[in-house]
Amino acid sequence: MRKFDLLEKVEVYQIDLLIYLSNVGGTATKKELLAHLNIGDYFLSKLIEGLATLAKKSNGCFSIEVNKQTITFQTKPDYSLHTLYNEMIIHAPMYRILEELLLYGTIDTSRLCEKIGISYSTYFRKLNELNNLLAEFDLSIQNGYLLGSELQIRFFFTSLYLVTDPKHQLKVPNIDPRIYETVNSIQQILGTPISFLARKKLIIYLSLLKRRNAQKIIQDYNKQDFFFSNKTAINSQKRFIEALRKTHLFKRIDQVLGLFLVYYSFKMLPSETILLLLFMLGEEIIPANAHCLKELDLIERYSNFFIRTLNQEFLKFMKEIYPDTCLNHTHSSILHYYLTSTGYHHLIFKGHIDYYWELNDTKWAQSRHSMTVYRFIDYLKETYPVIFVDETRDTVLITKYAHAISFYEECIKPKISVGIFLEGDLLYKKKITDWWIQYIELTALAQAEPLVDNKFYDLIISNVDCSYLRKQGKYFFILTNYNEKKDITDLDQLLYTIFYSSTKS
Q1: Where in this chain does the record put each Mga helix-turn-helix domain (predicted)?
Q2: CB atoms within 10 A of CB 223
Q3: Less packed terminus of the chain by CB within 10 Å, N or C?
């Protein structure tokens, strides 16, 4: 599901037009826009007219200027297309239907149609379109209610709020202070600060929990089938849930969650703490350095949890591709956390709302390691076919593995050692040395540092030509000036030459 699938057709064209202008630097000809959007002159003029009206209402946050045959789009630094989208979507009928379900738990068709100014026929047409989108999340709206597993409903609304960012609903004083206290208590249990995004997810989740309890529409279920959307290795999933209930983490979260619900006189259902923990695992709420991950790792081992199998398959595959390589402890820990989080998300949830303009990030498909990605995915499909059940979810999982493969390859890539020695003004040469170090390391091909005496480097960079400097490096590069453009171009070429000659040898 794309972020702007909820918008009206005209608004989608308007956003697409602005995306194109942004991608080409802000200005394009009418001919280019007509070709890109595949529309006629009249419709293009209506789109621009509508955007010009929105621009006037934005108090100068963005502007659309038409100068004969060119159109120019400009925004303030603190304003983006996503901001404009968020302002558009609050009026979109499909979003208003979802908002009604969130706020009231059910839909009064007559009241909603009157409130948003649409006919009954338009409402039912939009409802049908919305159900087609919700199918990806294994959810549907029937008889005025949103149907599906409780965890999926909470995951969907959390995902929706994250990409639409309804600031007016997620800021003080709109958020109950008790929710902030509970989030802080959870952070204290984890023993390490959680990210801003993780806090936001927990705030939305607990807000949903409070609201849905007040609406009395939470299903009282305790079946294992509902805990994981993917049914791979069900017996190990059951063992994992049983073991999770016995952990210190479960007991402490259970206590905090119980205090949160009892404050409002809500009954705490038996599965409530499990739902929260699974949400935290699948949405990367728990930081990579949290001490409770060791306890979770133990129960993953005990239950022979399928995520461990996936992680082992990935590492075994990478070892076969790169047999004489090994990650250091830091890189290994980062990769393990990333793979485990990816596995949890895929097993627990269905559906994905893409924040960015294109549905899927497929840049890896054209990259040099695309064949490695395809080989690994083909192996998984053959060995564990039940993992891949839905095209959208599969694409998200494949993209995650593509990122993991890219990370692994970057970690094992041999780095060119570069020593930098500059003569000149004491403070200025330090500033320029730091600049060159940062620039060189951005290439991801080399590690640079101020020259250390008696240390041999692959490359020495200097603004003085001395024989003793040349002896400290396999290659020597002399600068024309501190940061001439030609020096930058020539050095880029030399770095690539050194790198690829070292990989072939």
Answers
A1: 79-161
A2: 8
A3: C
Dist. CA 249–CA 247, nearest whole Å: 5
Angle at 281 between CA 328 and CA 319, to 5 degrees: 30
* Burial of residue 288 (number of CB atoms within 10 Å: 0-12, 13-18, 19+): middle
How far is the C-alpha of 154 from the C-alpha of 207, rounded, in Å? Answer: 10
Backbone angles phi, psi at 168, to 5 degrees: -65, -20
The answer to whether residues 477 and 451 touch, using CB atoms and an 8 Å cutoff, is: no
DSSP three-state, residue 2 = strand
> How many Cβ atoms are within 10 Å of 460's Cβ, its own excluded?
23
Burial class (CB in 10 A: 0-12, 13-18, 19+), 118: middle
Higher pLDDT, 226 or 383: 383
For residues 328 and 227, the answer to whether their CB atoms sit within 8 Å is no
Q: Is the pLDDT of residue 172 over 60?
A: no
| Longest distance between any two alpha carbons in the chain, whole Å | 88
Per-position b or e across 178-217, b if 16+ CB within 10 A of its CB: ebeebbebbbebbeeebeeebbbbbbbbbbbbbebbeeeb
Question: Which strand (E) or helix (H) includes residue 500?
Answer: helix 485-504
User: Could you give the domains of the chain?
Assistant: 3-77 (1.10.10.10), 305-412 (no CATH), 416-504 (3.40.50)
Is the full-model pTM beyond 0.70? yes
Confidence of residue 146 (pLDDT cuts 50, 70, 90): very high
CA 67 to chain centroid, in Å, comes to: 38
Average pLDDT for the chain:
88
Rounded-to-integer distance, Cα 253 and Cα 190, Å: 10
Which of 413-429 are b and which e, b meaning 16 or more Cβ less than 10 Å from the residue's Cβ?
A: eeebbbbbbbeeeeeeb
Total residues found in the chain within this entry: 505
